[in-house]
Write a structure and sequence with these properties.
- There is one protein chain.
- The two termini are 23 Å apart.
- With 297 residues, the protein is an alpha+beta fold.
- It contains 11 helices and 10 strands.
- The strands form 2 sheets. Strands 1, 2, 3, 4, 5 and 6 form a 6-stranded mixed beta sheet that branches. A 4-stranded antiparallel beta sheet has the order 8-9-7-10.
- The model has no long low-confidence stretch (mean pLDDT 95).
- Bound molecules: cytidine-5'-monophosphate (C5P).
């Protein structure tokens, strides 16, 4: 009997995001610095007495066959080209969905890594990256995680040195979800200027905490922010409230999640309290290094 296998699916935040222009296939070309954080879903692979693979999810709204986990499993099964060991795949959901935190993409990446190992397919990094890009623009980053600069539609990746350790507080306005496609469509209508990510990339290369923090306090970190804030009162209010409290919340990806970095646990838990006082949901986590499962591929 095969042993069960557990793979963590970490969330990501975008420390900076610049939309450059139109890209092939109706996408947008972008440049973004992505950082994996410890907030995570869990994907469990267990022996099954039923044939093929079966999918279960703790969130009934995400339990359908269109879940990226199912799409990843189907893609890998096709690539395997041989009979695979029956497996029950359970997704324990923690990362808020449609929040700009890459939860679905990370679940798909964890499924590729988990099944590659569970089915003993021995696919290499290049093959997995190729399949990941087929599943979604953020999935290639989620395979390895850590700190990376993504280009193209998000699928072309260059590693950056690991970010120095920070506590991360994620702030979510209640009851707001944004689909990535809608965020980009809104961006096309609002179009704002482009931040240069160079100062951020340089700060990460030299590992300068204060310069990284200074970048995040700057007024322009994410080109999608104007679009995300348009018409979303709960997000506008939460951002305003946090700024009045002296904080500098930054939008992650296409939102609506905002985040703030902190140097210590007391400072992070103070920020989390402020988020709750402002009516938002707070998630306290920290920056993560590259995924071990990826290093071992
Ligand atoms: O790649 P993914 O499935 O995550 O993208 C979802 C949608 O977001 C795309 O269909 C597209 O409308 C939009 N998108 C984009 N440019 C990107 C990434 C996503 O326009 N770089």
């Amino acid at each position: 009997m095969k042993r069960a296998l557990v793979v963590k699916a970490f969330a990501k935040i975008n420390l900076g995001l610049r939309v450059i222009g139109p890209y092939r296939g109706g996408y947008h070309e972008l440049e973004t610095v992505m950082q994996q954080v410890s907030l995570a879903d869990t994907v469990l692979f267990e022996p099954s007495t039923l044939g093929g693979w079966r999918f279960f999810c703790t969130d009934p709204e995400l339990a359908g066959e269109d879940n990226l986990v199912c799409r990843a499993a189907a893609l890998l099964e096709k690539r395997a080209g041989k009979a695979t060991t029956p497996v029950r795949i359970s997704l324990y959901k923690v990362i808020p969905s449609a929040a700009g935190l890459g939860g679905g993409s990370s679940d798909a990446a964890a499924t590729l890594l988990g099944l590659n190992s569970y089915w003993d397919l021995q696919l290499g990094k290049e093959e997995l990256l190729e399949m990941a890009a087929e599943l979604g623009s953020d999935v290639p980053f989620c395979l390895g995680g850590g700190t990376a600069l993504a280009r193209g539609r998000g699928e072309i990746m260059a590693d950056l040195p690991p970010l120095p350790f920070f506590w991360v507080v994620i702030a979510l306005p209640r009851g707001v979800k944004i689909s990535t496609a809608d965020a980009y469509a809104a961006f096309d209508r609002t179009r704002s200027g482009e931040p240069s990510l160079d100062p951020l990339i340089e700060a990460i290369r030299i590992g300068d905490r204060s310069k990284i923090a200074a970048w995040l306090r700057g007024s322009f970190t994410n080109t999608l922010e104007t679009a995300a804030l348009t018409g979303l009162e709960p997000l506008v209010d939460l951002k305003k409230g946090l700024r009045v409290s002296g904080l500098a919340p930054v939008l992650s990806g296409s939102g609506p999640a905002l985040f703030m970095l902190a140097d210590s646990y007391p400072s992070a838990s103070g920020i989390a309290r402020t988020v709750q006082e402002e009516g938002g949901e707070a998630y306290l986590c920290w920056t993560e290094f590259k995924k071990e499962e990826w290093e071992n591929v």
